[in-house]
Design brief:
The chain has one domain: 2-Layer Sandwich (Nucleotidyltransferase, domain 5). A hairpin with an 8-residue loop joins strand 1 and strand 2. 45% of the residues lie in helices and 13% in strands. Strands 3-2-1-4-5 form a five-stranded mixed β-sheet. The protein is α/β, with parallel strands linked by helices and 223 residues long.
Amino acid sequence: MKYLSIDIESTGLDEDCLLIEFAAIPFDTCMPLEKSLEHTLAFHSFIQCPSFELLRPKLNPWVAEHNESLIRKAASCNITLATFGNNFKQYLQSSPIKNYFLIKNENDQNKDQDKIVLFGKSLNAIDLPFLRRDLGSDFMNTFFLHKVMDLTAFAFGLIDLNLLPEGVHSSSELMKHFKMGEVSHTALDDAKNTAIIYMRLLDYIKTQKLLHSSHITLPTTGL
């Protein structure tokens, strides 16, 4: 299956915090890991924000310490929120993206097959609320399916199946589990790494042969 892995960076998690970086990269779970990410179709943008000095009094201490350079990059760019929205729309309407996802008519909101499935970590808690606020519900409903694949939720399921250790569900813990280093907290790297983690989890499940009917028998009645 094909997904669009996304990630955002912001000035915090509160409702009034600002979106300052966004990235997206398509990937295909039917491909081997080393070929799954379509790097040539990646999208990345900073979004202009006030200066770090102006924002600092209201910043969460963690954000002020770890995201100062990111905020300064966003503050120095000339890409407004409106420009970002237009650029992202053009990206989604481009022939390479439409061909990759086999989209025929993105303007028909009733056709699920012409919508992209978003992938990410903690999508419903973080990324989607910011994107719906800043891009609008019409934008999101036009291009994206309302159902998403969330790495965090997937990890919770694997913990329930005893396939992941208890507590290994955040991106940082999953990165450590797969010895992939630290979370970069830059949008494009995080979008890539979450997709890679998902592919590795799928490969692990396949090697355990948990998807074979000889190992798992699903009930057909009483559901």
